Amino acid sequence: MLALYLRNIRAQRHMTLAQVAAKARYSVPTMSLAASGKRLPTREVVKAYVRACGGDQTLAQGYWEAAMTQKQSEQLNRGAAPVALNTVAPARVRPEAPRPAGCETAAELRRRLVQVKVWAGNPSLRRLSQMMESQPGASTLSDLFRPTRRTKCSHCGLNPCESTGQRVADQEQTVPRLDLMLDFLIACGIRDTLRWERVWNKLKIAEMEARWTQPAADWSDGTKVFWGSRGLS
Questions:
Q1: Among 133, 97, 94, 90, which Cα is nearest to 113's?
Q2: Per-residue pLDDT averaged across 145-165, rounded?
Q3: Cis amide linkage into residue 136, ω under 30° from 0
Q4: Phi/psi class of residue 165: alpha, beta or left (left: φ > 0; alpha: ψ in -120 to 50)?
Q5: pLDDT tens per residue across span 26-41
Q6: Concatenated DSSP letters for 142-194?
Q7: Beta strand 168-170 pairing with 150-152
Q8: pTM across the whole model
């Protein structure tokens, strides 16, 4: 009955396990196990789960005590020592979520997103897609964690080259899509996405400035042509 009640109050609130875990300050696997019915959660975990979903603490406490009484009875029948109601070891509190502070490059931002994924229980890309509102494909979602490959001409820097059509691999990393990143963060239980958006804006501006000021061509006489806000210089 306890597990059923926990699942019902989460469904009524239309919350994902990641959202419940974020509000309860426990890990996603702990919240999932609490509502699975496979193992009796601790009193503290149940209180945190119900509080996150806005449920009835008194009703949940009654379900928990009934389940604990049944567990003690089963242990006595097996000859094992019963577990006292007030001696249940509390579950480990969920660690603080990773933050984007200190990310100075797109590569560092992507590595920080990987840390968020691990913090949220390291779900598979398929599971992540189901948790996200946009439900992106696995290949689209994986772009959050790996560099974007682009191709540019080695002579003029255009993509593709308008004069020769030559292309070379350029493994420069760019920031991920903002909408995809925010959707991912919310699905993982990150509530304060504003600070992530600020870091993304800073890195995006730096990326655009670097793109507009880099040499677009290097001629044989040593003359360099730059693309800038005023065109050729």
A1: 97
A2: 51
A3: no
A4: left
A5: 888 888 888 888 888 8
A6: HTTTSPPPEEE-TTT--SS-SSS---EEE----PPPHHHHHHHHHHTT----H
A7: antiparallel
A8: 0.49
Q: Using CA atoms, how far apart are residues 43 and 16, in angstroms rounded to an integer?
A: 21
| Greater pLDDT, 171 or 104 | 104
As given in the structure block, the two tokens for residue 174 are 């760019």
Q: How far is CA 166 from the centre of its chain?
A: 38
Distance, C-alpha 127 to centroid of its chain? 11
How many other β-carbons are positioned within 10 Å of the β-carbon of residue 93? 13
Instruction: Read off the pLDDT of each residue in 116-122 and give the average, rounded to a whole number.
Output: 88
- Cβ neighbourhood burial of 89 (10 Å; 0-12, 13-18, 19+): exposed
CATH numbers and ranges of domains, the chain: 2-78 (1.10.260.40), 106-232 (no CATH)
Residue 218 pairs in a beta bridge with 224
pLDDT bucket at 210, cuts 50 / 70 / 90:
confident
